[in-house]
Design brief:
alpha+beta; 3-stranded antiparallel beta sheet
């Protein structure tokens, strides 16, 4: 059954970069337009300039990390709100505020049509598969493939840039007492999307790209917390003059720890 998002639901989704208005900026663009000839390359170069990235591959990686919140927003809607948004490439626009005085690029997502398809009251398995397929196969994979093609950056890096935020979402809501009543659904969706979902739901893949990058967290005394180390480097350190690295960086992080101390390292 199709319904419009309510004001309360929009309020929840705004916490995950949902935008209820369009913004004037050279970095605001309907997603579908990025597939027009030359547009993705042009857009990546705008990001490169915005974040002072040294090359297009760094800009591409930062693009996909920000686009990771498209997965977060829609999986939150699926699991917590029991809603499937219209995630077609034609229905989504990236919105950037030029008024934000921040050096990094931090876009939001605007949906032209805010109709949703509710989860059925009985078995939601088929509905969940359809929702995962819509989010990943029909949207994220298409964007990811285009970004990789125009930048030359490995798809492995780009998929992990998405995966880390999926882990973050589910681990965050599982740890939050306010979601205790939804705990069974949250855990069920997390286990399914991570370990049971067929690679076909994510595109023409013979594997589940979320499972590929999932590993145990290990305690790092320099940060005094448990951290899941990435399998690929997102190149974030190339966007800073200090070569500050993410806490999860798989490369030799001793430079960042020794030179700047743990407090200067960011999580992915």
């Amino acid at each position: 059954m199709a319904n419009l998002l309510t004001g309360e639901e929009i309020g929840h989704l705004k916490e995950f970069r949902f935008s209820d208005r369009q913004l004037e900026s050279s970095l605001s663009s309907p997603v579908i337009e990025l597939f027009e000839a030359g547009k993705m390359n042009e857009y990546l170069h705008k990001i490169k300039q915005k974040i002072s990235a040294p090359d297009i591959q760094v800009a591409a990686s930062m693009f996909m990390k920000r686009y990771g919140f498209f997965a977060v927003l829609n999986l939150y809607a699926m699991t917590i709100l029991d809603k499937r948004l219209n995630v077609s490439l034609q229905n989504v626009s990236l919105e950037t505020s030029d008024e934000e005085e921040i050096w990094y690029w931090n876009p939001k997502f605007y949906f032209y049509d805010i109709q949703t398809v509710d989860a059925p009251l009985t078995s939601r398995d088929e509905w969940r598969d359809e929702t995962i397929r819509a989010i990943f196969q029909l949207n994220i994979r298409e964007v990811l493939m285009s970004v990789s093609k125009h930048s030359g950056l490995s798809k492995k890096v780009l998929w992990e840039n998405i995966a880390i935020y999926v882990y973050w979402l589910y681990e965050s809501v599982l740890a939050n007492p306010k979601y205790d009543k939804k705990r069974e659904t949250i855990l069920g969706d997390f286990v399914y999307i991570l370990k049971k979902a067929n690679g076909e739901l994510f595109g023409e893949l013979g594997f589940n790209p979320l499972l590929r990058y999932y590993g145990p967290k290990e305690f790092h005394p320099e940060y005094e917390q448990n951290i899941r180390t990435r399998k690929t480097c997102c190149l974030y350190y190339k966007t800073t003059s200090t070569e500050e690295r993410c806490k999860t960086c798989p490369l030799n992080c001793e430079l960042g720890v020794r030179k700047h101390g743990p407090k200067n390292s960011r999580s992915s």
